[in-house]
Amino acid sequence: MNPEELEREAAQILAEYNERYRARPYRKAFFRPPVGQWKVDASYVDSFFESAKFLLERIVEGTLLESMYGVPAVYLCRHYLELEIKYALFHSRRLKHEHKNAGDREIEAVETIHTLHELWDTLIEELKARVPSIFDTGLDLKFVSAFVADFHGVDKEGWRFRYPRKRIAAVLRTEPPADILGIDFASLLFDLKRTRDILDTLDGRLVDQHGENDEWESELESF
Q1: Which of 154, 209, 204 shows the shortest CA–CA distance to 184?
Q2: Residue among 129, 140, 127 nearest 201 (CA)
Q3: Would you say residue 81 has pLDDT above 80?
Q4: Is 192 exposed, middle or buried (0-12, 13-18, 19+ CB in 10 A)?
Q5: Whole-angstrom distance between the N-terminal and C-terminal Cα of the chain?
Q6: Can you list the positions of beta strands (E) in 70-120?
Q7: Phi, psi angle pair for 200, to nearest 5°
Q8: From CA 199, how far away is CA 187, in angstroms rounded?
Q9: Is 45 a residue whose pLDDT tops 90?
Q10: DSSP string over 128-170
Q11: Closest CA to 104 of 113, 96, 114
Q12: Which of 70, 82, 78 lies closest to 185 in space, CA to CA?
């Protein structure tokens, strides 16, 4: 770089820095409907899965730095897993048992807890009670159990991939240095995609069973 180019670059850097001190009108980003309830127009499960997969694929191929994008990718994986389990749990609760649907007022809401292990154990128990035939299909639920257990082992309380420390506070000099968590991003990508296939199939079967029960009950009422 010649002196003129260096001078231009320095001037540009200075101008960009000084820009933050200039007053600018705020651009409103969110527009709530004027009345009534509102929601975000999004497919949450798909959005978190696809975003996690997008980042992981590029980390694995080397186009994104794992030191920069790895933590968001892992968090998106975990939150996807939490959402997918919760929706499967909700869809299981729409069934009183295999061939009878629950009424709307009978469906227990899924609590806003974030402990993956607890959510997964609850889902397995409710599947055993409501749709035990799921376990005869050969669907690889043990793989998902292992994925849940892997996350549970490093992020039991759900904060590890959102914050650097449980409490943002000064690091005492007497505090021993922490070791670094190893992350195999290629394996994480594989686990994510396989888990998606399994849970999506499970959720689809629960939704389909509810629809079949509805059709059967409608036929009985028509007689």
Answers
A1: 154
A2: 140
A3: yes
A4: buried
A5: 87
A6: 95-97, 100-101
A7: -65, -40
A8: 18
A9: yes
A10: HHH-GGGGGTT--HHHHHHHHHHHHHH-TTS-TTT-SSSS--P
A11: 96
A12: 70
CA-CA distance, 125 to 92, in Å (whole number)? 11
Q: What is the mean pLDDT of residues 44-60?
A: 98
Shortest CA distance to 101 belongs to which of 212, 210, 215, 205?
210
Q: How far apart are CA 83 and CA 194, in angstroms?
A: 16
Count the helices and strands in the chain (H runs, E runs): 6, 2
**What 3-state DSSP class applies to 26?**
coil
Say how far apart CA 82 and CA 120 lie, in whole Å.
9
- Structure tokens belonging to residue 28: 């409103």
- Written as one letter, the residue type at 140 is D
- CA dist., res. 14 & res. 22, Å (int): 13
Give 9's contacts (C-beta < 8 A, 6+ positions apart): 1
To the question of pTM greater than 0.85 for the whole model, the response is yes
Residue 102 pLDDT: 93
Token pair, residue 81, equals 């897993």
User: Are residues 115 and 156 in contact, defined by beta-carbon separation less than 8 angstroms?
Assistant: yes
Q: What is the DSSP letter of 176?
A: P
Work out the pLDDT band at 4, boundaries 50, 70, 90: confident
Give phi and psi for 23, each to the nearest 5. -70, 135
